[in-house]
Specification:
This protein is of the alpha/beta class. It has a domain at 3-155 and 188-216 and 256-272: Rossmann fold. It is built from eleven helices and 13 strands. The chain has helices at residues 12-21, 46-56, 70-75, 77-92, 126-141, 164-173, 191-203, 220-230, 243-246, 261-267, 274-286, and strands at 3-7, 26-31, 39-40, 60-63, 98-104, 145-150, 153-154, 178-181, 185-186, 189-190, 209-211, 218-219, 238-241. The chain has a seven-stranded parallel beta sheet with strand order 3-2-1-4-5-6-11, sandwiched between helices. A two-stranded parallel ribbon has the order 7-10. Strands 8-13 form a two-stranded parallel sheet. Helix 5 links the parallel strand 5 and strand 6 (145-150). Helix 4 packs parallel to helix 5 (126-141). The protein starts with a strand and ends with a helix. Bound molecules: NADP nicotinamide-adenine-dinucleotide phosphate. The site of NADP nicotinamide-adenine-dinucleotide phosphate (NAP) has 28 residues, from helix 1, helix 4 and strand 5.
């Protein structure tokens, strides 16, 4: 059985990856703050990275560890670079196996999405810049790499800490009004749509760049309305606002989203609709 070292395992995507990979791979679960029996691993700390790699000797590294708070990255670019770029270099130094990097649509400027793998990148935030620098470094320096770009990942399980779907469901269930931007377009992606693709990419040694998002391109306000409908909540509590009204520190790509034809034909898959994913989440939550 091949082994995978997962970094950033206790984040939103880590839970789904563990669930979908644990039967077919030996997993070494790590994060910067350790839970259960996980391995303490700050990918920005070269020495600890070397120690963990020597102790675990994985066949595959699945790098989920990242500074993902886009506004915090904008305020602290050197920390963002230390984790999102140097962390990747640290993991690859002395590692010759299959490296899987989860990247983002934030490498694009959001003027003319949805984007395919050949579209020109042009990040407009520190987060996007650092993620793109890591993608480019990997493509130039570690040929046994899969880069999987995704967008607006969501999940809602008993363990989920922060997720758009959880925020919408919890707010509306408590009768709270919410404002949601209607000018940011993506194809929101359930973590459990994406996680099963990782095992498939490993099996075919897909050393390449792929985009994946679920089937429906929509703005965030419409996404909130669909969530409300699927969970039988009051759509009148959701109001549209514009991104400019939020006065966020980092600019966001507005017309974004990812085209998925390449990964569909490589893996023989068909992306799920958002409504199907939300129905499944709802069923899992009541179990
Ligand atoms: N969420 C999205 O919409 C989205 C979209 C496209 C791509 N991605 C990419 O997908 C990957 C997983 O994202 P996610 O949604 O699961 O993010 P997340 O919930 O923020 O998880 C990231 C994990 O990395 C950990 N981490 C932070 N600094 C680290 C360090 N120095 N060393 C090791 N781990 C560190 C975080 O720990 P703390 O929580 O303690 O900081 C967290 O557990 C990331 O690479 C992200 O860039 C996410």
């Amino acid at each position: 059985m091949k082994s995978i070292l997962l970094t950033g395992s206790y984040g939103q995507f880590g839970e789904a990856c563990i669930k979908h990979l644990k039967s077919n791979f030996k997993l070494f679960i790590s994060d910067v703050i350790v839970l259960d029996n996980g391995i303490q691993l700050d990918i920005a700390d070269e020495k600890t990275v070397d120690q963990v790699l020597a102790e675990t000797n994985p066949d595959i590294i699945l790098n989920l560890g990242a500074m993902t708070d886009v506004d915090k990255c904008e305020n602290d670019p050197s920390m963002a670079r230390a984790i999102n770029v140097d962390g990747v270099k640290n993991l690859c130094r002395g590692f010759g196996g299959h490296f899987i990097q989860i990247s983002t649509d934030y490498v694009f400027d959001g003027i003319a999405g949805p984007y395919d793998e050949l579209d020109e990148t042009n990040p407009i935030s520190v987060y996007g810049r650092t993620k793109l620098d890591a993608d480019e470094w990997l493509r130039a320096n570690h040929t046994r790499t899969t880069i999987l770009r995704t967008n607006v990942l969501y999940s809602y399980t008993k363990l989920t800490q922060a997720s758009f779907v959880k925020w919408v469901v919890d707010s509306l269930s408590q009768g709270k009004k919410i404002n949601v931007v209607d000018d940011q377009w993506n194809n929101p992606t359930w973590t459990e749509s994406l996680a099963p693709l990782i095992g498939k990419l490993i099996n075919i040694k897909a050393f390449d760049l792929f985009h994946y998002g679920d089937a429906d391109l929509m703005n965030r306000y419409d996404f909130a309305l669909i969530i409300a409908k699927v969970f039988d909540l009051d759509t009148n509590l959701v109001s549209p606002i514009s991104t400019a009204d939020l006065n966020q520190t980092a600019p966001r790509p507005l017309r974004s989203g990812l085209k998925t034809e390449k990964i569909e034909s490589a893996l023989g898959i068909v992306p799920n609709s958002v409504e199907t994913c939300l129905e499944k989440i709802r069923k899992q939550l009541v179990k």
